[in-house]
Amino acid sequence: MAGSWEKTACILCECNCGLEVQLGGEGGRHFTRIRGDKAHPASQGYACEKPHRLDYYQNGPDRVTSPLRRKPDGTFEEIDWDTAIREVAQRLSAVRDQHGGDTIFYYGGGGQGNHLPAAYSAATRRAMGSRYRSNALAQEKTGEFWVNGRLMGTAVRGDFEHCEVALFVGKNPWQSHSIPRARVTLKAIAKDPKRAMIVIDPRRTETAELADIHLQVKPGTDAWLLAALGAVLVEEDLIASRWLEEHVDDHEPVLAALGEVPISEYCERSGVPEALVREAARRIGKAESLAVFEDLGIQMNRHSTLSSYLNKLLWLLTGNFGKKGAQYVPAPLVSLAGGLEKIAGPSPKDKVTPVVGARVISGLVPCNVIADEILTDHPKRYRAMIVESANPAHSLADSRRMREALSTLDTLVVIDIAMTETARLADYVLPTPTQYEKAEATFFNFEFPENYFHLRHPLFDPPDGVLSEPEIHARLCEALGAYTEEDLAPLHEAAAQSREAFIPVFFGTVLTNPKLAPYAPVILYRTLGPRLPKGLEPGAVVWGLAHRFAAAYPDSLRRAGFEGKGFEAPERLFDAILESPSGIVYSVDGYDESWKRIKTAGGKFHAAIPELLDALGSLRTQEAGTGDDAFPFVLSAGERRSFTANTILRNPAWRKKDAQGSLRMSPNDAVQLGVTDGDRVRLTTKRASVEVPVEVSGMMQPGHVSLPNGLGLDHPDDGGERVQTGIAPNELTASEDRDWLAGTPWHKHVPARIEAVQ
Ligand SMILES: Nc1nc2c(c(=O)[nH]1)N[C@H]1C(S)=C(S)[C@@H](COP(=O)(O)OP(=O)(O)OC[C@H]3O[C@@H](n4cnc5c(=O)[nH]c(N)nc54)[C@H](O)[C@@H]3O)O[C@H]1N2
Ligand SMILES: Nc1nc2c(c(=O)[nH]1)N[C@H]1C(S)=C(S)[C@@H](COP(=O)(O)OP(=O)(O)OC[C@H]3O[C@@H](n4cnc5c(=O)[nH]c(N)nc54)[C@H](O)[C@@H]3O)O[C@H]1N2
Ligand code: SF4
Ligand SMILES: [Mo]
User: Fold this and answer.
1) So what's the pLDDT on residue 626?
2) pLDDT at 341
3) Which of 49, 748, 749 to mutate to test the pocket of ligand 1 (most atoms within 8 A of CB)?
4) Whose CA is nearest to atom 18 of ligand 1?
5) In contact, 431 and 67? CB cutoff 8 Å
6) Strand 722-725 and strand 713-716: pairing?
7) Nearest residue by C-alpha to atom 4 in ligand 3
8) Which residue, of 57, 286, 710, 727, has the fewest CB within 10 Å?
9) Residue 425 in 3-state DSSP?
10) Which residue, 740, 735, 715, 742, is CA-closest to 726?
11) Ligand 4 center from residue 141 Cα (angstroms)
12) Residues 676/696, Cβ–Cβ less than 8 Å
């Protein structure tokens, strides 16, 4: 008899495609069948190959099911939750009282499928007086965020579904997705003779295979290529002059700077024929609409912030904003980096980190300086750290140094489902249900003109011994004395009556009370949570988000069908979220809506960014290669492939292909080194030297080699022995190799040496 299909979502990349699953197997605790959910508003039945392996997440071998405390001999002992919460609160408040809350650092808050913890952890951070935090965005997107802030004070995305020309810069959406139904959209563009795809990537990726124009740049030379592209737009008068007059404050200095770019020389430096660069620029300049996606290929590379800027100038100079098929500003249910507003406006004063003085962008400390902020005798060094739903001992640059830093801390608390590389360094491990054992959601909601939100319902009961993140944060806040039972009494009382009664009491006693407002998320969880349908308690904070959204975007909400007097619209929205296991559309906009979301003083773009125009000028005198004869290869450490998913799936058996994660290398280099598929080579960077099997691949250009991301985890084998599979990319990277402005790492540009192994 076939089981019933339950609705959920994939958690292996930021798309969170809707899924339908059947449960069964031992104790009914396994996924037995998985398919795309046609009712999901964004994915519409689409799913790639990876979610079929999700049982490896739900039933992973490294699961932790009791709070753990480190013993003096370094091993862990199980403790009960009361002890765990009491001791963690005691140790953190001791650090706070002695050194200041600003020495308690928070890292993480959600991976690819779970962002509710981030909302709740804000309360714990405030209860500790913590001021610094970070997450993975600060090793990929902060350079782009900074440019966005300067240009228009908000984030933009490209409308790939409707664009005439799609431009992917250091982005391989065939494998990495990031846009809904990526492969369907890519194929549709490729098939339509009136549309075109342009890819900038040193590799002949799956996406590049489908492209009309592949600018196969030399690794790390995008800044020169993007400058040349912009310069051709100016030289050949392909820019939208009247549009610029109307919408941009200061485009003249930009046009002047691009006018000085030596186009032929920069094309040559980037390794792309000038004729092809001009063809791409013309295709961009003449298109009705252009959508652009830049990603790790430039963001984790030399000149990352400069490249983001030059890249954005391509759509800005051609007027590709605020119309169908171009760039848009989505209406988010929650502002993801929490601080975009802070960096908007004409003269932002960026906050800096206490030790290194690195720019804090969108509220996030650059990941590459975290170890420097710890490994010092500076009085304001980070002394304690909470890591939640992240694995920085593996995912941040310079793993060895990161491990040293984490081990030096007075207290490290890790909140995770699994015994990760980071958890093994912790003083306390606080285990949680998996994302299929509790209600979860992500805040990666960037679609347009319709935007959607999906609160997933739990599928399994959690094992005894774990607590959900909201429960952990509420208990920590309570142990830290953030609020009392007395404070909550009127809220409990109102919630018992109705949500209608709850609204004025919550607004009146919490949001307007400076003592309680900082803890609003956990207070909602404690008071409204128990009134929600069973299993959806962690969704309590979404009620607050719904109200905030209704206040900020009433028209978008109304167009999505949520109307009413007073607080009716957000209340209906929240009900709909609770009652829609496939997710719902909560925001509908016209294309011109984006114009209203530009947050600069005069509502116009600020095109001239002096720091980056200077950086553009300095390209003239810089070297394009690795500049080091000892390391003639460029290693891209962390490529997305069919069977990679950060470190979410720890059991290597989930990989149907290439379980060891081969080093991809061009046929030319393989001949030079005398190696062929499966042969082992020694790969050396300034940090480490490892042995790895080779895959000879026509995707690669000579001099460029590439390792997958997410490998090098260790996990117990059948005999319980821990074995490591593949290479952990950040054993090979160095934290000092980072962008001068945003501090983003150069993971895609690691100078390396390769020798054949006999
Ligand atoms: N399968 C799979 N999908 C994923 C993930 C996963 O782990 N596995 N992770 C998700 C996450 S967290 C993210 S952030 C996204 C990332 O998504 P992407 O950024 O698309 O992923 P990458 O493969 O890391 O890098 C993209 C491309 O950059 C290219 N590149 C390397 N060097 C250069 C260069 O010098 N210039 C240019 N222009 N390109 C260069 C690489 O060849 C690669 O094709 O993927 C998401 N999707
Ligand atoms: N060299 C190199 N390094 C890279 C990259 C690269 O391309 N090259 N890519 C970078 C990028 S773009 C990213 S996004 C990062 C990703 O790196 P991280 O931000 O560290 O995230 P993940 O590896 O996804 O780890 C997610 C963690 O969440 C845990 N988890 C899963 N479900 C739950 C849950 O419900 N609750 C809790 N509390 N925990 C849960 C998992 O066990 C895992 O430990 O890696 C980065 N590191
Ligand atoms: S595209 Fe991403 S979210 Fe969708 S099924 Fe594939 S891995 Fe999962
Ligand atoms: Mo990422």
Assistant:
1) 65
2) 37
3) 748
4) 171
5) yes
6) antiparallel
7) 17
8) 286
9) helix
10) 715
11) 8
12) yes
Q: For position 379, what pLDDT does the model report?
A: 97
pTM for the whole thing? 0.97
- Distance, CA of 59 to CA of 333 (rounded, Å): 31
Atom 45 of ligand 1, nearest CA residue: 176
Residue 705: which of 645, 649, 626 has the closest Cα? 626
Q: What are the chain's domains?
A: 5-58 (2.20.25.90), 68-139+341-447+450-588 (3.40.50.740), 156-328+604-617 (3.40.228.10), 626-756 (2.40.40.20)
425 and 163 in contact (C-beta within 8 Å)? no
Q: Would you state the pLDDT for residue 343?
A: 36
Atom of ligand 2 nearest to the CA of 469: 38
Tokens of 168: 């992917």
- The rounded distance, in Å, linking the Cα atoms of 315 and 325 is 11
User: Which stretches of the chain score pLDDT less than 50?
Assistant: 1, 337-348
Give me the helices (H) in 375-415, please: 392-395, 399-408
Q: What is the DSSP string of 311-323?
A: HHHHHHHTT-BSS
Amino acid, single-letter form, for residue 54: L
Q: 563-580 burial, b if ≥16 CB within 10 A, otherwise e? A: eeeebebbbbbbebbbeb
Expressed in angstroms and rounded, the spacing between residue 511 Cα and the centre of ligand 4 is 33
pLDDT at position 718: 83
Q: How far is the CA of 82 from the centre of ligand 1 (A)?
A: 42
Pick from 343, 345, 284: nearest CA to 316: 284
Atom of ligand 3 nearest to the CA of 645: 7
Pocket of ligand 3 contains residue 48 by CB under 6 Å: yes
For residues 487 and 510, give the distance between their C-alpha atoms in angstroms, rounded to a whole number.
Answer: 9
Beta strands in 179-279 (DSSP E): 196-200, 213-215
Query: Rounded to the nearest whole angstrom, what is the distance from the C-alpha of residue 417 to the centroid of ligand 4?
Result: 19
Would you state the pLDDT for residue 627? 72
Query: Which residues have C-beta within 8 Å of that of residue 689, sequence separation ≥ 6?
Result: 682, 683
CA distances from 135 to 226, 299, 365, 440, 735 (A): 28, 15, 8, 19, 15
The continuous run of DSSP H or E covering 717 comes out as none
Q: What is the pLDDT of residue 601?
A: 85
Nearest-atom number in ligand 2 for the CA of 135 is 19
Distance of CA 422 to the CA centre of its chain: 19
Question: If you take atom 6 of ligand 3, which residue's CA is the nearest one?
Answer: 48
Ligand 3 atom with least separation from CA of 12: 7
Query: Which pLDDT score is estimated for 349?
Result: 62
Pocket test for ligand 2, best of 395, 432, 436, 476 (most atoms within 8 A of CB): 395
Cβ < 6 A, ligand 1 pocket: 13-14, 140, 169-172, 175-178, 200-203, 205, 217, 219-220, 222, 295-298, 301, 636, 638-640, 644-646, 709-710, 748
